[in-house]
Structures are given as structure tokens and as C-alpha cells.
What we know:
- The chain is α/β, with parallel strands linked by helices.
- The protein is 44% helix and 18% strand.
- The chain has two domains: 35-181, Rossmann fold, CATH 3.40.50; 190-341, 3-Layer(aba) Sandwich (Rossmann fold).
- The radius of gyration is 20 Å and the shape is globular.
Amino acid sequence: MQEFDTPTFRLAVAQFDQAAEAMGLDTNLHERLKLPQRSLVVSLPVRMDDGRVEVFTGYRVQHDSSRGPSKGGVRYHPDVRLGEVAALAMWMTWKCALAGLPYGGAKGGVQVAPKSLSSGELQRLTRRYAAEIFPLIGPDKDVPAPDVGTDAQIMAWMMDTYSQQVGYAVPGVVTGKPLSIGGSLGREEATGRGVVYVTLEACRHLNLPIETATVAVQGFGNVGAHTARIMQHHGARVIAVSDVSGGIYNPKGLNIEQLMQRDLNQPLNQTKLGDAITNEELLQLECTVLVPAALSEQITGKNADRLKCRILSEGANGPTTLEADRILADKGIFVIPDILANSGGVIVSYFEWVQDLQRFFWSAADIQNRLQDIITSAFHRTLRFSNERRVSMRMAALMSGIDQVAQAHLQRGLYP
Length: 416
């Protein structure tokens, strides 16, 4: 459909079409799952600090709810579009199904540069957005979470706005909240920790000792920073990291803790803790593990041939195009696809939701152990499927997730 036509949505649909054709998916289901179940576009008038009213555009897209409530983050970014949000919702559907979580996929977003707003403006925008999407969300309907440009504080404002509407505290309406209002231990680092767990399994599978492994991470936000820190804790040498302004490189290894504690207004390439490099140069470094943890479509047909990693572990959503996938396969690079590699965030979000519903909270060790168990099991199921069906890891992950959703639709039937 024309409304969804963006490069990210075209990539998501092309991946789905390829997997659906390979698995012989029922034609009717193929058409149904191409488009989201429900899409909402909202106008968000916000009073700015100078007294004027600015109108922002927000979105909430629910791709599928056949297996349970829909689940997905809220993104604040100037480039957010309906098609991008729909693509991310589709990937969330396959991601939840692949991990065995009782969720469908959703995603939300607001077209805004959050750093350009004051704290008061950001709060008013968030509360208006939560009020506008109120009919769609709820602990049994659709559960938002943080994503690019949002954090625990924004989730707290969303939870409070929803709770004010119903008249009592509903901690389970969002995940990624502060601990004081029903958040979960381990949620902030969950996506990065999940990336590490599947990367360690891939290293074992390929007989690559972690003690001699080198790692480059594109994107030093929440996912990239925690991935780098935990990889270093497991003995790997992190040789390069980057943010939107560029990155730094040190073949002897970077001090990740020091980089995480720096003034966040200081770009990485100005820290003088390594040699300055561009994001493009980082992708082409010789390393054991490359982690794209920034935005989508970073690895394309134009640069894929220049990658020199052994493992590509996708911390971001949709960082690799279909054309690049074919080149990486020819080069023998082992790809851990996004819907597997970065599923740690939604897995621990699921834990938070369960804890909120039960009003019973788990220890950090419990959460880490449960996360490791679920995500490594998903990795080995995907690897086994890949080997048995002789398809790529991405196709194996997509086909497994799509099959779970297809089975739910076939069992439930069509209403009316």
C-alpha cells in the first residue's frame, strides 16, 4: 500500500516474501501478513516553553495479535514515518514468535528530534501521545517500550498518563520503566546482553576463542554500549565504537567503562581515547565480530563486499539489505539476524510484564539466567533449522517465526 511505502517497509516485505515463498506459506495468509492489522496516525499539539503551539505527528502500528497482546517500542526521531513503524512492527511479530513469547508485533513513534525539546516540552509531548493512542494500548492489548530516542522516564510518563485515565496504577501497560514503578532489573542492558549471548554461541559454533576475538560496534547508544561492555567483560577486545558523529579505533582495545562515563555531550571521536574513524570505516575494519547497533540499512550492496568480519551480529533492526545479504553469504560471513540477535530487549520486557501482572519481582541473576536460556535456545533452533533446510540464518529465523504466526492464524480461523 502506498501509505507504507518507505525503504524500510520495502525491505521488511521483501524479506517476508522471500521467506514465505521458501516455506510455501498459504497464499491467503501471505497476503494477510504483508500488512499491519491496525495503524493509527495522530496529531499531537504541544504547548512549547515560549507559549506557541507546535503540532507533531505520531504513530502506533499493530502488525499482528493472533498470539497475544502486541508488543513494541516507541521511537522519537525526525525521520519516523508510517512505513518505517509498520516495518518495525512486522519484525517484532517474527521476533516474538521466534523467541516463543506470547506476543504479536507493534511499534510506535513520533516525528521529533527529542534533544531539541526541553524536559517540560518532552513530557507534554509524551503525555499527549499516550493520551491519543490510549484506545489501542493496555496490558492485555498492546504494551509499548523504549526505543531510539526514548527511555525509562518517557515510559514512566506514558504509564502515569494511562493510569490517570483509568483511575489506578497500571504498571503493566508499558515496559522499560524505572524500578520504583514496576520496572525490571536488567531491562536497560537486556538487548545488549542478548546480543552478547548469541554472539558467544556463534563463536563456539565456529570454534573462535572469545579471548582472541576482536569486536567493532557501530552505534554507542543503549544497545551498542552495553554490548561492548559485556563483550569486554567476557574477554573480547573491543577495538572500535562509533556514534552519529563518527567513532574511535584502537587495535589494542578501548576502555569501554571510561567511554560510557564520559560527558554524553562529547562526541566519541573527540574523546582522544583512540584514533578518529568514520562510521563507514568502522564497518570495514578487520575484526572477529561486527555489531551494527545504529539505524537500519547500514550494510548495503555498495559496502558489503568490503566487510572483513567473521560474524555479523545485528544489534539494530534491519541494518542489512537483501542485496548485501547475498554478498555476505558469498563471503562466508556468519550473520546473526536482527530478529534473533536483538531479541533480548523484548524477552526481558516480557519478564517485566509478567512481574507486573503477578506483582512478584525476580532477582537480577534470575533474569540473566532466564534471558540466556531463552535466547540461546532460539539461536540453536535457528541454527539447526538453517543446517537442515540449507537456508541462511536470516531465512531460518524468519521462516521459524512466520510459521508460528501462521499456525496461530490457521488454528483460530477467520472471523466473521
